[in-house]
Write a structure and sequence with these properties.
- By secondary structure, the chain is an alpha/beta fold.
- It has a domain of about 80 residues.
- Helices cover about 40% and strands about 15% of the residues.
- It is built from seven helices and five strands.
- Strands 3-2-1-4-5 form a five-stranded parallel beta sheet.
- Helix 4 crosses helix 5.
- It is globular.
- About 30% of the residues are buried.
Length: about 140
């Protein structure tokens, strides 16, 4: 995906990251053409922290105890880049992006444009992830 000058803030909804086969590689790639990359979610902070730790994602920002709309507003104020792009999964995400002055991009469109694999595309059903690690049931009980 060509983000242009790199003067962009990119926010992923947690649900969008969960749809990607290799969220760590997505963040690494996005850092090549964005200034800031982070995660927003309605879920508790420990759920986001658990996901980002598990996938070794270094984020520049996350929503913390705020909702997605308030988080996007705060991030927009804090990171004064030319563009602010929110990657989500549903129509409600597009509405939040519009209400907060962000551009919206569906995760499937973003994945196609950037050459990222979706989790469903990478799952061969052998009980392991793309790196050969055993598939795990998602856990929300550990920070």
């Amino acid at each position: 995906m060509d983000g242009g000058s790199g003067d962009m803030t990119l926010a992923f909804d947690l649900a969008a990251l969960e749809r990607l086969a290799h969220p760590d590689a997505v963040f690494t790639d996005a850092r090549q053409w964005t200034e800031y990359v982070g995660v927003v979610s309605e879920k508790p902070t420990y759920v986001v922290t658990n996901f980002t730790r598990k996938h070794r994602i270094r984020q520049d920002f996350f929503s913390g105890p705020r909702g997605r709309e308030e988080s996007l507003e705060n991030v927009r104020e804090q990171f004064g880049t030319d563009r602010h792009v929110f990657v989500g999964t549903e129509d409600g995400d597009a509405d939040i992006a519009e209400a907060t002055g962000w551009e919206y991009l569906d995760v499937e469109d973003a994945a196609e444009a950037a050459g990222w694999d979706l989790a469903a595309d990478a799952d061969d059903g052998d009980g392991t992830d793309a790196a050969g690690r055993p598939d795990e049931e998602p856990r929300d009980d550990w920070p």
